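Q: What would this chain look like folded?
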Amino acid sequence: MAGDNKNYRPMEESIQTDLKGKMRYGDYLQLDKILLAQKPLSQEHDEMLFIVIHQASELWLKLAGYEISAAIVNIKNADFRHAFKVISRVKQILNQLVDSWNILATLTPVDYHKFRGRLGAASGFQSYGYRKLEFLLGNKNVEILKVHQETPGARDELSQLLNAPSLYDAVILRLHKSGFDIDASTIERDFSLPYESNKSVQAAWLQIYRDAENNFELYELAEKLVDIEDAFQQWRFKHMYTVQRIIGDKMGTGGSSGVSFLKKALDVSFFPELLSVRSELP
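A: My prediction, written as structure tokens:
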């Protein structure tokens, strides 16, 4: 009998089965839209893997951007408690994205090339979610807006983010408001340009690290930012290596040079002084 089978778990009487007119799991998550959004263009088995990985990554990127936007507001308001929470969450999101490349790496070169031609000009370089996250973190480039000229909504939001202070800009302003001597040119700069390392910012971080007990919130914030830098660089490296593993040195579908283009991103730092200051410690 089922009741004697240890592998049988009986239905609890309290579990709702009459869901007519009630909010259901699928309704709340709009699963009818999400689970019908996978539409392979070929009959190749592995194309479903390719689609699901990228769609899931876009959802994680959306959440990461949402959390970084919240962190910027938190830091402006000196609300370190909530800033630490959401920044820690972003680190875990990035770790999840790193793991997704391990799944995609099961796609062999032979199987990928069976459907690669169906992608046309579609490329991850066109990812609005990824670009939004990079702009929020401070890696600005006005030329990238050209890629989104056919999608006005995405282009307009990215244009706003391009000209708005990034997470690190908000942090530097917080350093200034906390009494550290920060160059005015760094605080009142053109935010559409990528951030450049500044001696006054490095000097402020050096003071904070040398007296962490009396500057604990800023010290902890610095380490949280380094966590993001670390996780993002792991994501970048895994992206580059997975692409190299699958297509070698071939050009990307969107027209980039592929692996060599991705390698250049590894030299980009969101928070340069937080790395260079370590050379001056203890």
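The chain has a mean pLDDT of 94.
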